Amino acid sequence: MHELSLVADLFTIIEQQANQAGAKKVTKVVVSVGELSGVVPELFRSAFQSYKKGTIADKARLQLKMVKIKFKCRSCGHEITARNIMDESFSYLCPACGSKEMELIAGRDLYLEKLEIET
Amino acid sequence: MEQKKKELLVLEDILGSNKKIAGQIRKKLEEHGILAVNLLSAPGSGKTSLLEKIGLKLKDNYRLGVIEGDIETERDAERIRKIGLPAWQITTHGACHLEAKMLAQIFDQIPADLDFLFIENVGNLVCPASFDLGEGLRFVLLSVPEGDDKPKKYPEAFLTSQVLVLTKCDLLPYLPFDTDRVIKEALEINPHLKVFKTSATTGEGLDELCAFLEAELKERRSQHA
């Protein structure tokens, strides 16, 4: 629901980075999207398309890299990737040792990974 | 001049500006010994009613303040002021969640000698979960009429909270709500959740919830002393 405000923050970073690098144009924007970041890719994409007009990234393509939700067990080190968090049988207990100490190590973040620029 | 294409590795957190401000708020709250509680739930789950009831129980012994987040109107802040507590309304004008910078804007108005600062987020079980406000504790509320299938449908809210408050439990006899299922599924998402069964109407569970808050305040203050 708040993809537009996230895209606004994304553009603050894009413009800052592009200026620093002396870019004339940004041609590609690569964002990594955690599956648990709350971001809906389609909404993020359309917010990006409308926000980019008139900016340095006017013609830029947006690539979204989805990052799977991953937990690591603090007790035994076992790692699991959650295929589908809404899976009825999914449990956050460690499948290897049953520990409750599962730490979320991937899938919550939203990162600007890289830019392709023209100088 | 020849155009040159190149790739720029950035790796910058898009939520970074919120996290930074939230970190500053958390530091200030800890310095002042204030325990801030961020309340998340769908609209109509009873956040304001719960705050009214626990506010009345705690206000004689503790200094309390309430930040009310809503899309429009001062209605919730007015309800809190009616029971004699200071309340600050943040109206987001359409935004579906509170952000740390919204809190930062009113932070100067919050007295430094508070014990508890309750932050009632915008009614929404999805978006507020993604935004750290610098709180010490996060409560997720789920009311009995909403249904017992919610934890797995909205995992982030349950995953990022420390406390699950089931509200409107006085309605349990009238609704097909399986309390055991909710608690089981919530604990599968987050085994560390503390669960309280409450009713603002009958008062069920409110003393236990207040005792928990008092113990948390005491423990945090001894840690930061």
Write up what this structure looks like.
- The complex is a heterodimer of chains A (119) and B (225).
- Chain A is α+β, with helices and mostly antiparallel strands.
- Chain A is built from two helices and six strands.
- Chain A has a three-stranded mixed sheet, with helices on one face.
- In chain A, strand 1 (25-34), helix 2 and strand 2 form a beta-alpha-beta unit.
- The two termini of chain A are 35 Å apart.
- In chain B, 37% of the residues lie in helices and 21% in strands.
- The radius of gyration of chain B is 19 Å and the shape is globular.
- Strand 6 of chain A pairs antiparallel with strand 1 of chain B, so a sheet runs across the interface.
Short précis:
Chain A is α+β, with helices and mostly antiparallel strands.
**Coarse morphology of chain A:** elongated
Secondary structure: number of strands of chain B: 8
Biggest interface: A-B, 40 and 32 residues
Proportion of residues in extended strands of chain B = 15-25%
The poorly predicted ranges of chain A are none
Could you give the distance between the termini of chain A? 35 Å
In terms of quaternary structure, the protein is heterodimer
Total DSSP helices of chain A: 2
User: Biggest sheet of chain B, in brief?
Assistant: 7 strands, parallel
Number of helices of chain B: 8
Q: Give the helices and strands of chain B as they follow along the chain.
A: EHEHEHEHEEHHEHEH
Which strands sit side by side, in order, in the main sheet of chain B? 4-3-5-2-6-7-8
